[in-house]
Amino acid sequence: MASQHISKIVTIFALAVSFFVQGSLGNIACENLNKDSCAFAVSSTGHRCVLEKHVRRSGEDLYTCTTSEIEAENLKDWIETDECINACGLQRKSLGISSDFLLESRFAQKICSNECYKSCPNVVDLYFNLAAGEGVFLPKLCEAEGVNARRGMAEIKSSGFVAPGPVSVGYSNGEYFVSAPAMAPF
Questions:
Q1: DSSP character for 26?
Q2: Strand, helix or coil at 67?
Q3: Where does the source fall among the domains of life (predicted)?
């Protein structure tokens, strides 16, 4: 009986501390984060933080955290938990943001696991949007992971979808024009 009471007190204390820590993190600026908390964080403006690596002339690696132009859906002032990093198969020192991981079967299995997909909305939101940018619907990918992972991945790899490049719109000689870089040959 006493152990249950102590367990409840410890749980309540842990929750109070976690709320205090999350509340005290307010006004997160990506540029103020270190390399161990940058990746998968969201600034107070709702933009995702990105870890970048620069090599100095001396050969020394310099890591900086910057604000990306990618916005998180309904999320601000967030540093991803170690539990979600582990459950989703991620690494704290991930550089940049890429959808390439979605083509790796093990990574897709981790993202689609109940521990990640149902418990880590920040990570799921990020990879949902990255998958959508590649023409893939993450819930369908997760469904394919459960039924036939190799077939689902093969469909993604062979989709032939190419994201459009940057486009510029201008006005010259009394006419509007649109220009875009040529697509890479296949």
A1: -
A2: strand
A3: Eukaryota
Collapsing DSSP to helix, strand or coil, 111 comes out as: helix
CA–CA distance, 14 with 56 (Å, rounded to integer): 42
pTM value surpassing 0.70: no
Percent of the chain with pLDDT over 90: 44
* Alpha carbons 18 and 33: distance in angstroms, whole number: 19
Spatial separation of the C-alpha atoms in residues 149 and 143, rounded to whole Å: 9
Task: Give the residue from 63, 72, 55, 7 showing the smallest Cα distance to 34.
Answer: 63
- Per the DSSP assignment, residues forming a β-bridge with 177 are 170
CA distance 48 to 29: 10
Share of the chain above pLDDT 70, in %: 63
Would you kindly state where each structural domain of the chain is located, as residue ranges?
A: 81-162
* HEC per residue, 118-159: CCCHHHHHHHHHHHHHCCCCHHHHHHHHHHHHHHHHHHHHCC
Provide the pLDDT confidence category of residue 134 given band limits of 50, 70 and 90: confident
